[in-house]
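Hey L., structure's done. Input below.
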Amino acid sequence: MRSKGWGVLIAGPRAGARVTRSARNMAHLYGWLLLLPAAALLALFTHYPALGTIYHSFYSTPRANRPSVYVGLDNYQSMVEDPVFWQAVTNNLIFCIGTIPASIALALLMAVWVNGKIRGRGLLRTAFFTPTILPMIAVANIWMFFYTPDYGLIDQIRGLFGLPGFNWLGTRNTALWCLIVVTVWKEAGFFMIFYLAALQQIPPDLSEAAAIEGSSRWYFFRRVTFPLLMPTTLFVLVNAVINSFRMVDHVVVMTRGGPDNATSLLLFHIYEVGFKFWDVGYAAALTVVLLAVLALVALGQFFALDRRIHYR
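Output:
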């Protein structure tokens, strides 16, 4: 009886450990089952197409009387020798330089403005955010009315000062900058929402203490507010970079890449190669390069800036 009692005492902790381990495994299994639908959709519509694009970039475009064959790096070599590709890359870099800093700065300015206690604050927030909810095609058509030579709003205002009409979207020196203005106008309100949410998370005690110490508003913003907004700035920056490389709607509606490829961005070039010229092999190679550039930029931003902007 004593040995049996000792056996129960010895087996008790082991049985409890087995029950705990079994419960932990069931909890892990339950968690993975909850993630399975989202993971399946992500793999089906993101990872599988990306791997398929990499695979097709090494093959030629199939034709009616000629199947697709392995061509190795020929599509990438054609990319290096393609002047339209390099023109699109140059345009995209100018587009990034023109849209990213301007949209982030404007979004921060609008967020600081509507975060204060001013009359009509709700109306201002709505007005700033309205361009974000408009469809891109509608935005492009609105701004095409602004840029129309002689009859557009801009030339109507210029006419009041005796200035002649100007073809804004038909001139190489101005067409790309017209697209930049449209993009900044549409995206600044979207980024403003993130800055506004971050500003509302800053404790008001900090501003009160700074006011007691006699600090000016600009000094408080530069030394306290803006550093605390850096995590939000990193998030906004990554989204702004991605948006600047995936812009295609405005180009299709407003310029179609013209004049003379002056507004042909990288994604629009991929669209033309894949759906207009039906060279899916070359389009796949262009897409791989675009994905690689975006991945490197995003990783560089997170690993290079993330440690410097989060405060512990």
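The chain has two domains: 1-56, 74-309. Residues 1-10 have pLDDT under 50 and may be disordered.

-- N.
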